[in-house]
Write the structure tokens for this entry.
Amino acid sequence: MQKIIVGIKRVVDYNVRVRVKPDGSGVALDGVKMSVNPFDEIALEEALRIKERGEATEIIAVSIGPDDAQQQLRTALAMGADRAILVKTDQAIEPLTAAHALLAIIKTEQPDLVIVGKQAIDDDAAQTGPMLAALWGRPQATFCSKLTISGTVATIVREVDAGLETIEVDLPAVVSADLRLNEPRYVKLPDIMKAKKKQLDVTDLATLGVSIDDGLKTVHTEAPKARAKGIMVKDVAELVDALKKKGLVS
């Protein structure tokens, strides 16, 4: 196997408390810490482990977003990616547009494997990977918790409702990484310095021949309602009584 492409998305850091703009037009991002989507970090870590086992020769990190997304790509390079590509756009895009952009990169790079996070923590759509596989006409394995490669076949253990499912797919293929696939490595300062010298190419959707034709429009954003304060009960009888008063049991 030669190349692995890894999708990297810039999202609000998972430790940050997300706040809605006063006018309800979206999420407030000014001064907010942004990071690599956690599931994409897991995807990149798996690609790095595959390369370290001698099963791949090059890892390419790809992100679609504003110019500031170069920061997250530099993080990916510091983790160990060989080079990076930013598809620059200042517009919010839907998974289908992202899949078309990734497909354009794939046609140029001809990777043997594409790994993405199973979902992004900002929209939880979990659609880009399956859409990309469908557009590419290649097999997909979603919610991957274990990945092994033998020649041109990848064996994936998937987490499903009934337990674990093991499947085999022919490469090239699209794999989406689940939480338990691995634990991403920490980035060290020397690696951050080295990442500054690694190749990071910038293109845009128009150059790739991709147009933004999203079918959804966000009309309003609001924060979830505050949860009611909980109460402490002394025993089961008091619990049942409290539930009866709320009409939850009869």
